[in-house]
């Protein structure tokens, strides 16, 4: 009888054991951010109106029309006077960069931000199991991840990945790598390092689609410490809920809208095409289709379906279609499942477009606008400056959800949702100046100083000497 009972219970015990193992393994696959550190370069690298004017005048390939174009672009860019540039710009050698210039720019960031991060977290470099580095526009063997390993004397069995050419959405691609490695290994530390190399990538020509990048991109970076160790979850800041990547590289129009190339006489620059907004909208819409069911409550999804069906039914009697232009409204109340929106600071138009599509308020867009104004477009690291602004403003409370949205060359749109594990209020890179934001106005003084260019006559215009 006892043997019969045991045999009867054995399958049930095996099922319970498998369920317990599945739950236990699932818990070890979680991805937490323990801490992160954004980079603030030294004050002697700060870019003001005067300095910008000097740099532009050094380019002898520009004429009056290019000056007018640059003035219009920088005035409407949303960028302020306290962003940062690489040291090569201040020595006047932007047209003749060396490999050492690019390496120096990266090493200043690595040694500052990674050092601060690990020290504050109480984690030794020797404890790091996984290192993922993304810097799109520099490749210098040994790779940047190897340079970090050498500087911090990390373990010889560390798993490292070095990403290049992935564009402004690369930090979420790096995060996806970390997340997938965590699925196979338990109790690990990962270090994610994201930045961009501007030193060797200044465009010295006069192609408007390529000189525009000179106006938008600025120096920056972020180091992020992650773990899947469930015993550390109460020390964590954020828990990753989901991540969605959308890639439109198969579309020629999307692929070519944002690309590094040579101009007509062989000068290398970063081309931003007129069809970029269209490519961004397409990838954004496709990304939203996938991530929306993952992050919004069922009630909101049902409401959206009902409203959509009613609208479709009402349009059936119409014989004429209406063409849609510009940003498209999602029609879904994202605030039903998201508390904060971390938007890539690709430019004022990018922020405005996402704000319109998701029906966000100025309060929601403030972190992205302030980050663009203070730090500019720091490429893949910009999301983390936006996140740090929210933290410095003490907006991030336990249980809140943060949606990150980024765009990048390829063309790509990547997004992810974080859950805040505990109340956060550290200032990070904003610590010493958060009380000054938002300022009364985001207007920069470029028009006030250089507006006279608009009245110049092309027939007798000469490049000003001072």
How would you describe this structure to a colleague?
Residues 1-25 form the signal peptide. This is 3-ketoacyl-CoA synthase. Its EC number is 2.3.1.-. It is a single chain. The chain is an alpha+beta fold. The chain has one domain (30-308, 327-426, 436-455): Thiolase/Chalcone synthase (Peroxisomal Thiolase, Chain A, domain 1, 3-Layer(aba) Sandwich). The protein contains 15 helices and 13 strands. The protein has helices spanning 2-28, 49-58, 64-75, 87-90, 99-121, 144-152, 170-182, 208-216, 252-255, 276-295, 298-315, 348-357, 362-375, 382-392, 446-450, and strands at 32-38, 46-47, 83-84, 130-135, 159-163, 189-195, 221-227, 238-247, 258-262, 268-272, 340-343, 401-408, 412-420. The longest helix has 27 residues, at 2-28.
Helix content: 40-55%
Q: What's the SSE pattern? A: HEEHHEHHEHEHEHEEHEEHHEHHHEEH
Helix/strand class: alpha+beta
> Helical stretch count?
15
Q: Using the CA coordinates, give the radius of gyration.
A: 25 Å
The best one-word shape is: globular
Provide the low-confidence segments as ranges.
321-325
State the distance separating the first and last CA atoms: 102 Å
Overall number of structural domains: 1
């Amino acid at each position: 009888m006892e043997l019969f009972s045991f045999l009867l219970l054995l399958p049930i015990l095996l099922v319970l054991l498998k369920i317990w193992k599945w739950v236990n393994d699932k818990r070890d696959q979680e991805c937490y951010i323990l801490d992160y550190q954004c980079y603030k370069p030294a004050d002697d690298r700060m870019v003001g109106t005067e300095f910008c004017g000097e740099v532009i005048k050094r380019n002898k390939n520009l004429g009056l029309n290019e000056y007018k174009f640059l003035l219009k672009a920088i005035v409407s860019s949303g960028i302020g006077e306290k962003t940062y540039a690489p040291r090569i710009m201040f020595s006047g050698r932007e047209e003749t960069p060396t490999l050492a210039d690019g390496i120096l720019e990266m090493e200043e960031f690595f040694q500052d931000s990674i050092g601060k991060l690990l020290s504050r977290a109480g984690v030794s470099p020797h404890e790091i199991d996984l290192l993922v580095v993304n810097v799109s526009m520099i490749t210098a063997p040994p790779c940047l991840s190897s340079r970090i390993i050498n500087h911090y004397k990390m373990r010889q069995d560390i798993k490292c990945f070095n990403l290049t050419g992935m564009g402004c959405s690369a930090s979420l691609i790096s995060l996806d790598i970390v997340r997938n490695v965590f699925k196979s290994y338990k109790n690990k530390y990962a270090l994610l390092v994201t930045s961009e190399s501007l030193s060797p990538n200044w465009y010295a020509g006069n192609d408007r689609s390529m000189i525009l990048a000179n106006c938008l991109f600025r120096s920056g970076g972020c180091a992020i410490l992650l773990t899947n160790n469930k015993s550390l979850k109460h020390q964590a800041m954020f828990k990753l809920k989901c991540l969605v990547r959308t890639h439109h590289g198969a579309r020629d129009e999307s692929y070519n809208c944002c690309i590094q190339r040579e101009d007509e006489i062989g000068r290398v620059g970063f081309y931003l095409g007129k069809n970029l907004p269209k490519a961004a909208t397409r990838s954004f819409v496709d990304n939203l289709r996938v991530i929306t069911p993952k992050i919004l409550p069922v009630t909101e999804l049902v409401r959206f379906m009902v409203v959509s069906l009613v609208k479709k039914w009402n349009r059936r009697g119409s014989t004429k279609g209406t063409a849609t232009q510009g940003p498209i409204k999602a029609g879904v109340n994202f605030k039903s499942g998201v508390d904060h929106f971390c938007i890539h600071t690709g430019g004022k138009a990018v922020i405005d477009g996402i704000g319109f599509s998701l029906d966000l308020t100025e309060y929601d867009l403030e972190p992205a606008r302030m980050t663009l104004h203070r730090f500019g477009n720091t490429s893949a690291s910009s999301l983390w400056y936006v996140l740090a602004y929210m933290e410095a403003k003490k907006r991030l409370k336990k249980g809140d959800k943060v949606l990150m949205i980024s765009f990048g060359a390829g063309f790509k749109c990547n997004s992810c949702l974080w859950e805040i594990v505990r109340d956060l209020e550290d200032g990070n890179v904003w610590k010493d100046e958060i009380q000054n934001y938002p300022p009364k106005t985001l207007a920069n003084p470029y028009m006030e100083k250089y507006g006279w260019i608009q009245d110049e006559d092309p027939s007798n215009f000469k490049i000003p000497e001072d």
